Records
---
Amino acid sequence: MLVKWIRLTVVDRRGFERGQRKWAGLLGEPGFRGQGGGWSRGRPGVAHLVAFWESRAFYDSFMARSHDRLAAAQAGTYKDAQVRLFEHEFDVKVGFRPSFGDVDVLRLAHCQVRQERVEHFMLMQEKVWNPAMAGSPGMLRGMLGRAPGEEFLVLSLWQSAAERGKYRPERVERLALRAQIAADVRAIAGDVVQLEPSWTV
């Protein structure tokens, strides 16, 4: 499965949200599996979207045919768009599916991993982070995606902001030490996203 992550700064909120509804047109696209998104809880005006495709071939076909027509409705409503593509490596918890109806909060961690530490990073995701997150109340499902090179996206879907808050900073610090994250990762950028139900496709 291919994951597309888009982060952008919205300059015309009403126009952007109106245009966002046009993406319902994705539903007829071959290989499309789902899309959701919302507003950053820590950065005003920043929106995140994640879309899921069965394969790169289906995604490339969509980009060549229909993308520009759907995107036209949002022209001029945002700036600084950053787009990244990741291949699904493994699930966090079990049975990841790209649906958002039962989800309030999306958490993203974008990791640039040192080349010689990639194997260790992936092992720690599986052996340390995965069980810890799977055991967190309110964490419904998640996944680890990888881009060419040493770039990873850890994506987790949470039932509510209150449940997400139970994932305490001191616990995260303990896990980070155990996983030797400082040795593995060159840079990490995260965000917590309040999902907008009307953006779900």
Note: The first helix runs from residue 13 to 20.
---
Amino acid sequence: MRFRLTPRETSFYDMFAASADNIVTGSKLLMELLGADVSARAEIAERMRAAEHAGDDATHAIFHQLNSSFITPFDREDIYSLASSLDDIMDFMEEAVDLVVLYNIEELPKGVEQQIEVLARAAELTAEAMPNLRTMANLTEYWIEVNRLENQADQIHRKLLAHLFNGKYDAIEVLKLKQVVDVLEEAADAFEHVANTVETIAVKES
């Protein structure tokens, strides 16, 4: 890590950790949605919406700190990118839950649980990784594993699309379900964007 003579604002580390912990909360709500009765989904969506708002607040706090800090722990554009990508994850997860409720989807297709399991694992890894930004230690395995999970998510997504277009569902139901699985895939992509940003930061700081 490069030696610096100037002090650096360290509250960013805590903010990133809090944002990632909130994503774990969101992934747990996604898991809860899988096993919930249709009648219970609206309440889960409300809790997810509250978590998404908490994520927005965390992101705004990071941006405010960025705009008011003269010295930052790493490049400003990387701080912005990391905060934005973390926020995107919560946005996509909240959107997926909201769509399930708004579209009155009674049964999610087989394979969605695998998508959500991948997201839950990526959320855990991301939450574990954020505190390590302080030292840039033990991060290589994190971004390698998240990239592997994103590749797995791609495969699951393709299988889901093939299942949706096999003629079992009517056209309207296909459109509804496809939008849900596409948004979950976007969440997986956003996890990879976070991991790629962390890798970029680590390389610059090495």
Note: The chain has six helices and no strands.
